[in-house]
């Protein structure tokens, strides 16, 4: 287990030690991953070989790893509504809220004690917004290439489609998150005020934001950035509150766990079997369409997944989870590229060769698992390759 100032070498660190004994590039696709690790002179993975963190912080490091797994799993679902279990899909979709919860925790724990707005925003521009622009350019090139060479569209049609895409504020489908989180960072003085407010005011504002979020749902196609800020604010505030009142949360841990289990089961049941709704709820903010049970479910999931993270400390796989946490933002940035590639390939195979996935339960679950492994570990390999080639400059490309 990782406790206090204890330092130990992870299995990634041991792999790095062994692989660096070899020279040159090993042959074979499976060796590429080890070569990227072993030949990393910039310390891409070596820096995570020996970890020195406090037990409380490592829980949230693991939660960040679980959050990126959650997000990629949600983007790996095959045969949505046609073979994949609806209740399971509703559990796996919408993992972004957990990411926001973690961001709120680290804002209070890391940035608030030494908060300087200018430095904070400059760092976020460098590590978040600039990589967003770079990867968006790659996404736009992929879109243009698909329209030109696969759909055989003329350049005027391609340029019109590119312009329409740019007007939404993002290119690759999960990247609506970046304008939203940048605006969230921009209003950090409000969050600083929130941290310093009296507890009664804090909890009243959290409750109000929770109710508002459950009623306004997500914006249509996630395009309205202000709508997204209002929707995800309770996740961010919950992260702040958990950091600020962590001892109180620990004292009432069992009661909170039971409450969250009840809320999650009820929310999944209401969404799946009463509303008969699959995935995230989207609508204009002031149009009445009932309660967003997905949002309610994910608020409970934040606490339950944190408990899972606490349990993971010192368990098999914890080192790998910590590794994914370190590169989580890079995975978030880059995995849509591989999703576009496989999505276009599947569409092309179905359209031109009549190849379609069977819509059975077994095929849906099995292919979704393969999709997850493909999206996650092709992205991990690309992240390590870019880090090795670019060194510290990779922050401008993928945020890590």
UniProtKB/TrEMBL annotation:
Membrane topology category: Multi-pass membrane protein
Stretches that traverse the bilayer: 62-78, 90-107, 128-150, 170-188, 200-217, 223-243, 255-274, 294-311, 323-349, 361-386
Gene Ontology molecular function, alphabetical: O-acetyltransferase activity
Residue runs in coiled coils: none
Domain Acyltransferase: 58-371
Compartments, as annotated in UniProt: Cell membrane
GO CC, one annotated term: plasma membrane
One annotated GO biological process: enterobacterial common antigen biosynthetic process
UniProt superkingdom: Bacteria
Keywords: Acyltransferase, Cell membrane, Membrane, Transferase, Transmembrane, Transmembrane helix
Family membership noted in the UniProt record: Belongs to the acyltransferase 3 family.
Protein name: Acyltransferase
Protein source organism: Proteobacteria bacterium 228
